[in-house]
Amino acid sequence: MNDLRKTLEISTSPHIASGRSVEDIMRNVVWALLPATAFAIYAFGIGALLTLSVATLTCVATEHLLCRGGGRRSTVGDWSAVVTGLLYGLTLPPGLPLWMVVGGGVVALALGKYLFGGLGYNAFNPALVGRAFLQAAFPAAMTTWTPALAPERFQVLPSSTLTLPFMTPDYSLTAADGVTGATPLALMKFDQQPTGTYDLAFGFTGGSMGETCGVLILLGGIWLVARKMMNWRIPAAIFGTVIILSALFNGLDPARYPGPWFTLFSGGLMLGAVFMATDMVASPMTSLGVVIYGIVIGALIIVIRFWGGMPEGVMYAILLGNALSPHIDALTQPRVFGYKSGLKSERYHEDYRQ
Amino acid sequence: MQPEKPIVIRKEVVRRGSADEFLKGLWRENPVFVQVLGMCPVLAVTNSAINALTMGLATAFVLLLSNLLVSCLRHYIPPQVRIATFILIIATFVTVVDYLIQAISLEIHKSLGAFISLIVVNCLILGRAEAFASRNSIGRSLLDALGMGAGFTFALLCMGGVREILGGGTLFGVALFADNYQPWVVMILPSGGFFTLGAWLLLFNRIKQRQQRKQPRLQARLQEMGSEQ
Amino acid sequence: MKIIASDKQPAWIVYRALVGVGLVCALMIVSVFLLTLSAIEKNRSEALAQAIFTVLPGANTKLAFALTGGEHFVVADANTDASDAEAVIHAGYGAHGQLIGVAIEAQGMGYQDTIRILYGYIPDRQVIAGMQVLESKETPGLGSKIETDKSFLKNFSQLDVSLTAEGSAIKNAIVAVKPGQKTEPWEIDGITGATISSKAVAGILRASTRRWIPLVQRHLQVFHAAGEAHSDS
């Protein structure tokens, strides 16, 4: 048997190896995230810099230690932990205590990725798993927003950032007047107070660190699409669904439902649609499936934002979309050449089982 | 081919001592951590230590009485109707417990909510009635119920303790930390139940694996000692 | 292993088992029910009394009143049909039978599920003097603060519900404002991180006071008279 293997190597198509590796793509995602990261540091000061570094370091260290502990080769070198860490950091509110940042980062990697078997096996976007855990564990801290562009942001850290582990953060010293800001979504939902599209698009609002400046996020996304490292259909489907649905409801009742531009540029929609929903592992593989996936996420965002108890729903919408994506894949298998379409699902399931 | 050697299978002695009958439920065959039975109360009502303790004791009480009655009546219950009879007996004791808890404290009854009535469908109780009490003497059935009940209560307390400490910073309502302790709200929510159960199962399986790895070495040592003598 | 006998059991053995066990069980349930009945009822009424006396400081006896025909209050006793819990209110009296106030139950949608509250209305000063959450399933640690948060509960020790001059409506509807921004006596300071739950409580109170306070105020004489009669007897 051994001799046979030496003389003839048998493998399935494709046979031509491309030069593109996981490492290559992941590094490019990091480049694409840099504009938004830079803006986060500009808008939220040294606190953001510290939080983002801690988030990234935690994820990388967790991945390394888990691989070592499980007796595997460390997979830190493929940059995927850096992407997860950076994305995770960008979804956090500025001024979140560092011990919570570390806790969520460990959960993101351990529960969201390693437990499923590492890169390529994670059912959910690990960064969002970490964030969802924090949202459930510390709902108050995760919805307290220190205002953007505070005058002293480059000199002083927010008092809450350096909270001792397991202690309640103290926000009283964060803002000059002792009042924390609200996100445009919360203002709209609870006080019916809209924010201008210009401020929203360019990030002069409160919110999670990386989600405020929609234009820079789009820029990073366009770059990735241009390099063919991201499936443009996912964000396009999400944007399309959100625009159509919000325009529809805004037309019906403008006082209650915000318009398409507000919906598009507020909250984490831009960051989520461009960088989170496009997670290569947790999104469907077929072209049609990807569009369905985007529409489902877009519709869920609208449902949660308009009728849910919370002002923001991007995170849960994407996680639910992730959960659906294997099923979407199963439903949208292309017809195998030479087979009638009726047989496709049967065949697919046969392959799937093997 | 070698001449066939008679294979001797040493039959494990099934009859156990009374102490062992009690202890098996507590540890080796723990209903929650080993058998993974009765997950509904384990996940749903363990958000505080006092709830976990009450639920554990209520279940143990029902288990004890139903095992007793089933064991007493085991010669009179024909197999065709045994499940119906067992459920009837269990449901009776659950109703009794429901009234008793209401009489003792309305507060606890409120916090346990529908889960007291749901003891009826706890597969642990029907399982013990079917697999043990209907085939064993009254004394052994009582010991079995005591052990399983204690094991169940112990497991629930493990869950409730961790969840209350992390989720509220208290244990049995007593504050453990400084005032500004930040509770992990998720631990009190249903998802926290899954996290905690997962962590405990991980720990128990780890311990079991360790013991199993030690087992052959232990037996080898014992044999050596035996041959020396 | 005697129970696993042949399948051809005589029918009467099956009946004996089912009927016998059924009888034993029925007997057990009935006897335990009768034994615990008084304790359970005592617990129930104590819990209710405790809640009423908490929201009506100074009261130490109470009388239940039922609203009949949507307009008249009568003293409710064991014979009154109290199936509609919202139509029963409790009047609290001081040591000499003087009316302290009325405790009214109200409910409405919270963040997770229905919130049930009890509040005490003092007719003399036309204020709410206390509020207690009877039942809620709000998020532990956040929304559940409506039950425990001291500064939130302090809102209800002196909450203005004064009526308009002709007494048919409440002058200023109760509203929840952001934490620390209470300026008027009819405003409720919300709780940080529990905006929805605190607004829900305010909404429940607003709806309930709009219906009950003018009604109670119109029939104050009934409550006064019942208290005097009660203390005389």
TrEMBL record, chain A:
Keyword Membrane: yes
Keyword flag Cell inner membrane: yes
Record keywords: Cell inner membrane, Cell membrane, Electron transport, Flavoprotein, FMN, Membrane, Phosphoprotein, Translocase, Transmembrane, Transmembrane helix, Transport
Cofactor entry: FMN
Enzyme class: translocase
Cell compartments where the protein resides: Cell inner membrane
GO biological process entries: electron transport chain; transmembrane transport
EC number(s) stated in the UniProt entry for this protein: 7.-.-.-
Role, per record: Part of a membrane-bound complex that couples electron transfer with translocation of ions across the membrane.
Family named by the database record: Belongs to the NqrB/RnfD family.
Complex and partners: The complex is composed of six subunits: RnfA, RnfB, RnfC, RnfD, RnfE and RnfG.
UniProt protein name: Ion-translocating oxidoreductase complex subunit D
Gene this protein is translated from: rnfD
UniProtKB/TrEMBL annotation, chain B:
Keyword Transmembrane helix appears in the UniProt entry: yes
Enzyme Commission numbers on file: 7.-.-.-
Ranges in coiled-coil conformation: none
Membrane topology: Multi-pass membrane protein
GO cellular component terms, A-Z: endomembrane system; plasma membrane
Name this polypeptide is given: Ion-translocating oxidoreductase complex subunit E
Chief location category: membrane
Function: Part of a membrane-bound complex that couples electron transfer with translocation of ions across the membrane.
Membrane-spanning parts: 56-76, 83-105, 111-129, 141-162, 182-204
GO biological process: electron transport chain
NCBIfam families with a match to the protein in the record: PRK12405.1, rnfE
Subunit structure: The complex is composed of six subunits: RnfA, RnfB, RnfC, RnfD, RnfE and RnfG.
InterPro entries the UniProt entry points to: NqrDE/RnfAE, RnfE
Keywords: Cell inner membrane, Cell membrane, Electron transport, Membrane, Translocase, Transmembrane, Transmembrane helix, Transport
Organism per entry: Exilibacterium tricleocarpae
Domain of life: Bacteria
From TrEMBL, chain C:
Keyword tRNA-binding: no
Pfam families linked: FMN_bind
GO cellular component annotations of the record: plasma membrane
Keywords noted in UniProt: Electron transport, Flavoprotein, FMN, Membrane, Phosphoprotein, Transmembrane, Transmembrane helix, Transport
PANTHER family the UniProt entry points to: ION-TRANSLOCATING OXIDOREDUCTASE COMPLEX SUBUNIT G (PTHR36118:SF1)
Superkingdom in the source lineage: Bacteria
Domain FMN-binding: start-end pairs: 110-212
InterPro entries per UniProt: FMN-bd, Ion_transpt_RnfG/RsxG
Transmembrane annotation, as ranges: 12-35
Entry protein name: FMN-binding protein
Keyword Transmembrane helix: yes
GO molecular function, a single term: electron transfer activity
GO BP: any one term: electron transport chain
